[in-house]
Amino acid sequence: MLSMPRATFTLALLFLTIAALAQAPIGAIVGAVSDGSGGLIAGASITITNVETGLKREIKSDIQGQFSVPALPPGRYEVRTHMAGFRQTVRQAEVVTGSTTTVDMKLEIGTVTEVVSVDAATAQIAYDAHKIDGVIVRSQIEALPLNGRSFLQLAFLEPGVSVGAQSLAQYNAQFSVSVLGASSAKTAITVDGGNVRNSIEGGTAQNFSQEVVEEFQISSANFDLSTGIAASGAINIVSRSGGNDFHGGAYYFFRDNNLSAYPALRRNAFAPDPFFARRQAGALLSGPIKKDKLFFFFNIENNNQDAVVTVQPDSAYFAALTQNASNPYNGRQISAKFDYRFNTKHNLFARYSHDGNNGFGPRGGSPLPSNWLVNRNWADQSVLGITSTLSTAFVNDFRFAYHYWNNRNLHPTEKECPGCLGLGLPEMSVAGTNVRFGNTSNAPQGRDVRRYNLVNNMSWQRGAHRMRFGASYENAPATGYWAFGDPAAGQVWGPDIMAANRIPLSAFGFPAQFVTNADVLKLPLAAFIMGIGDPAQPPPFNIDKANTNRRYHLYWQDTFRINSKLTLNYGLAWQFESTLVNGDLSKPAYLAPLMESLDPTRPTYTNWTPSLGFAWNPFKNSKTVIRGGGGFYYDTTEISQRLVERSVIGPVGNGRQQIGGQSVPNPTAGIVNPIPGTLPNVNVGTPLDFRTAPTGFRLSDLMNILPRIRANSEAATANPNPNDLSVRNINISKQGTDLYPYRYSPPYSRHLTIGVQREIRKSLVVT
């Protein structure tokens, strides 16, 4: 894996689609100007023009005949070079996201009015980078029949990357992306330079139509230092823009079970042809508002999906509950983008994108529908970008992004789940079966996350050095709630396992088939837990310090072209997250045997990221590149871990915690033992933990006393002074997870790569 709590050493001999200049939503054109004998020409005039928008950059080759034009939007360009005493040379070039396209210009002796056109240049081979990443361009995206049309499915095309479908009823990630075996939760995701990653659990917090994607870049190893805080893979999206020509279209994609093959080799007898229908309809329009000056792009897409989940209990006592339960999902995605050219030196764009959706389905597996979730999302991203050519040597690219995500994970009601067995009951698994029913223990929960991104990157060409440096700042206030264990969760003894242990089922009055709430309430309780306390996230103690994470990233790097054959890349970055750990909460004395120190976990200010690599073009035909390098990269952690610890070590009554039945004495007299002398008695004061054998204490008894034991437990943890740290939650519950040590280092990874890239023929490169 690329990201672990301790360093791992990764040697990657990887396939490489395109070695990238940077994890940035822009590209660059570089090259050299020479005469027929190969001599380099200084002072030649180079004009680079975007074919679609008319964007123009003008530059002269330096004293070594080199030129560099950074911070170019992806697209097709015309490169025109002229010099007194030589014919003009014109070459087409394609710029892709985060990549450098090498366009060498050879001038022939003649008059400047004569024009020579040569073959187009592409970014297939990078002669000056050692990064391992790939870019998927618009022409490829248009030709791909993506099942579901999610922008993250484009990662399927990259080697070393695995993409997995996620539940449409959990948060907002329809697909997860794991790079080189690392955790998919840590993959960084940016769109036009703005962060859209779910910082709480990982994955994306917003979805985009594939019609909006101009280019899709994914970095696997040896990231460019402008990528930001990432060690486990990074995805960078560039959105589409309008141009000087009008383009538009409407589309409708329909998928139905009657038009599809069965999704397995063997049909399920209970679902030989499960219903499925997906209807995706949308329209797009782009073009000029004012030619060569102001452009627009707009897209809207609706997704209406109806599916079923086959629920098939493996117990004959629950066979009547076998069903194909409805699993609906509805979503709408909107994007609007405007590009404006002030003059030849300054360009601006602004984009707004919306993702709204709702679904009803299981969090995982196929429990009874009463255990499913109602999931609702509203996500918006707004981005402003300004690119300024300050001189022929300096180019600055500035981005401001605002992201908002509202998510609600709720228990179903009669509206979503009419007549469902277990609706309103605690989540219970039936021992000895695959049956699970009742309100899921992971809900209700919700989050309101805002993120403000400032990103600035500068490129400076100085002789053979092409330097880039910049900074990013992210301010991310977030609040929410997590009422886990509401009303409770646990396990009941199932009739199959009881019968296997020769316990007479007739003594418990079980029905032949369990089909109603009254039926399952007769099952004996095995164990349970319940959540108590304030579900607010972060918990109330010092909330003004805990609800905002600020991320800082600084970097400098240089691409040093030692000669026409060898390029050296090196740089250094630094990053810091203000609230990655609970720096304001000490540990209680109760944890002294486990901890080096009871002081608050100290923040880490020494997260330095060095990078060094080379690219060597050993042969005259420039069709082979040998590249290699290494780097040290720091990652982030999911904020959910810090929030859990905050409840555990916070003052009594701060946040939410779990109480298990083993610490709850039975308050009820008169629990009847159905088989006296054989099964254990449940007297007053007996801990409510019956995992060794079933008793007369049934699920119905738990439901009767839950309000009372919840009130007693919450009274025991009530704190009239919420800032009093003399007694902590863990002192009462005697349990806790996700505890951070005093010396905590963020996850990090060491990358080392070496590889060879060879152009076999035009449009065919082997790595």
What this model shows, in words?
This protein has 767 residues and is mainly beta. It has a domain at 27-126: Immunoglobulin-like (Sandwich), CATH 2.60.40. Helix content is 7%, strand content 43%. The strands form six sheets. The chain has a 17-stranded mixed sheet that branches. It has a five-stranded mixed sheet with strand order 4-3-6-7-10, with no helix packed on it. Strands 11-16-17-14-15 form a five-stranded mixed sheet. Strand 25 and strand 26 (436-437) form a beta hairpin. Mean pLDDT is 90; it is low at 1-22.
Characteristics of this structure?
about 775 residues; mainly beta
In CATH's first tier, which class of the domain at 27-126 applies?
A: Mainly Beta
* Count of individual helical segments: 7
CATH homologous superfamily label of the domain at 27-126: Carboxypeptidase-like, regulatory domain
Report strand %.
Answer: 35-45%
Q: What name is given to the CATH topology of the domain at 27-126?
A: Immunoglobulin-like
Helix content: under 10%
Find the count of extended strands (DSSP E, 2+ residues). Answer: 38
Distance between the termini: 22 Å
Radius of gyration: 31 Å
Low-pLDDT stretches are: 1-22
Biggest sheet details: 17 strands, mixed
- Give the CA-based shape: elongated
Name given to the CATH architecture of the domain at 27-126: Sandwich
Structural class: mainly beta
Task: State the oligomer.
Answer: single chain
Mean pLDDT: 90
